[in-house]
Every structure is written in structure tokens, then in C-alpha cells.
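Notes to self after the call with IL:
- keep both proteins in one doc
- input above output, always
- annotate only the second one for now

Protein 1:
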Amino acid sequence: MEKSKFFSDGDLVLLIPLNTEKIKDRHVIQLHSGEKFHTKNGMILHDDIIGKTLGSIISTHIGFNYIALDPTLKDIIKHYPKFRYKTQIIYPRDWGLIMAFAGIKNGDLIVEIGTGSGAFTAFLSSIIGPEGKIFSYEVDPDRARIAEENLRNTCSTRNYIIKIKNAEDGIDERDVDIVFIDVPEPWRVLRNAWQALRFGGQVVVYIPTFNQLQKTLKVMLLYGFIDVSVKEGFIRDFQIKPYAVRPKIKGYYFSAFIVFGRKGTFIPIKQIKEALKKFE
């Protein structure tokens, strides 16, 4: 279905201040006819946006200008007040890297271990489409409830199920394409991940420390995962000003190590024994 070029009642809209680069001054709101939105730069009438073309300039009651755009998922997660953070999330800087190296695509069947706030679940939902399915495991009922609310506010397709269950006790699904793990002790669920995957399927582990990385790699080898690799995403933002285009002095440079591995049709015992010696 072709996307509308005009804002309608019920749409989400991203408001970018015209004369400042401050990210905190951006807002994502949902349009409702007759309502008002208050900013530190003045009030905006929702009816002043409804019917306007995407990219229009919208003025507050004191004449401050915003650019109105359709928000990306990144914008919604960062600037929409209804998206609540219960845990640290996986940020967009790592989304594309995970998708590319794991080969995530439309129609995939995915198990996610560690729903958290649901940000990455929302990204996966947008990639796999209505033909795919996500089974997301979360041990904390409160986190699961908040994630469910976040997903309702961000996902256009209901292609996910949140299960309040510890994946250490077992994964119900079989022959899945991807198992994604984002928990403090991922090695505790690797055996269950192996059993859930189809042959050739990918396990992806997201971990922030070397201590976790070393133990995870050792256990992955013990369980026979093949084609194991570790990636780290690096992005540097630039300051864009006419008099000074340069890297920003302050930045967020490290998020986590991302480990990839595949399930083969056999376990290469000899290669595993040789590799494990290097961890001793």
C-alpha cells in the first residue's frame, strides 16, 4: 500500500526544531484532532499538522518553527514518550550489523531470549514482515508487560509473541532460523538454542564484556556451533556546521560484542578439541 504524503489523524509525527541540532529538542507525538502539544518553544495545535505534507514547517504559537516528518523506528524509540525503558536497549547502530551478518530476512522464524524493553523486537518485527514470527522469552513479568505496551505503540504487524518463561528451562520452538540471545549469562541457554535451531540456522549473542565473551565462545565450541565469529560495530557522528565539519568530540563508541555461530549437520570433534586447548 502506498504511503500517504499527508499527515492524518492518528499518525505519528516527528518534530525537528529548525534552528538547533539538540537531539533532546526533538519530539514524536501522535496526532489527535483538537489536541495541543506543549514544548519549551511554544504550543502546537495538532490540527495545524493534520492535512499538511510530510516535511512541512509547523510554527508554535510564539513563532518557533519545527519540521514535521514521518518518524523512523529509531525516532519512535528515542523520542516517543509512550515508549518506556525498563532495561538498556540494543541501539540502531547494531541493528543493521546483526541483520546483515545473521542474514535476517522476510518470513524468518526467530526466537529472542531477553525481550527487555522490546526495541530490538520491534526492529525484527519490521524486517521479517507478516510471514515471519518472533517468539520472545522474558523472565520478568513487569518487563514483559512494558515491552508488550511498547510493541503495541511501535509495530504495525502483530508477528510476535512474548512468553514469560526462562529459556534455561527450555525453548518450545523447533527448526527456527535465528536464535538471538541478550541475557547476562548466555552460555546457560546455548544448548537449548542449539536444539531449537534448524540445520544451518544462526545463533546471535549480544554481550558487553570480555569475561562473558570468552565463556560464551568456549561453550559454543563445546556444543558444536560452527562458523563462529565476533563483530563489533563502530560508528562516529560528525558535527555539521559551515565553519567546522569534524567528528564530534564526545561520542558513544562501544555497545557490545556480537557473536555469530551456525548449527551444522555434524559436530567437528577434532577441531573443537584443538580450539578448546587455546582457552586453557
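Protein 2 (the one to annotate):
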Amino acid sequence: MGLEKFTQEQIDKMSMIELAIHILSEQKKEMDFRDLFDMVAQYKNFTEQQKEDLLARFYTDLNVDGRFTTLGNNLWGLKRWYPVDQTSEKSLAEQRRRDAEELDEDDEFYDEEEDYYDDELDDLDLDLGDDEAMQELYDDLDDYA
């Protein structure tokens, strides 16, 4: 049943979660959390203050309600759309695809902290088969933590 068939009074009586299920069912695809919340807020005629107050509650309700699933990157869908064994695989595949799209070919991923630790480890010149050397390595790493 489409949302246009509901009166405003019926929509006002629905929980945000019930409304989210109807919205996702009509859209027939996963949605970004913020877009989903904005649609719920629009149907419920929330004020800006109500939106601020209810945003965290809506997120918690989505997480707790067993009818929803997150697909990574804050995308949400209805769990019934996905076979159990594909949900995590699809989530990982979608996440990797989006991550790859976000990084341009010219962009170079650089983790300063990881690079720093690699340089420090290279400077130690340790024989990792030696217990004393391993202890020195652990002690040096503890200094950086």
C-alpha cells in the first residue's frame, strides 16, 4: 500500500520505523540513512527541532529492528530483500566499490601513522628470531602507543 493512500492522521500515528518500511518498500532500493530520515521527517511534518531531537533515536531504532539491514556507507535496506548469506558479501562489495570511486586515480592513499611506525621499525635493525630483540621491539612500540 503506497503512502499516498494514507491520510496525514494515519501517518502521524505511525512510528518512524513503520514509515521507513513503507518508504523503502515504495523506493524498492536501499537508501542513505539521512535521505531516509529526511523523508520520514517530511511525511511526519517534523520541525527542525524535532528532527534534531529524533535523529539519534531513529538511527538506534533502525539498528535494533530486525527488519532492516545496513549495507555499509550508511545505506539501509529491508533485510527481506537479501538472502542471509549475501548480506555481508553484498555489503563488503558495495563498500569496496564506493571506496574505489571516492579515490581518484591521481590520489595516493597515505597513512602517516603507519608510515611513521614502518620507519621506526626499519631503524631498529632487529633479529626477530631473538627473544631479547622481540622484547625491545615491544618496548619501543609501547612508547608510541
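Annotation: Strands lie at 31-32, 68-70, 75-78. Residues 24 and 128 are 55 Å apart (CA to CA).
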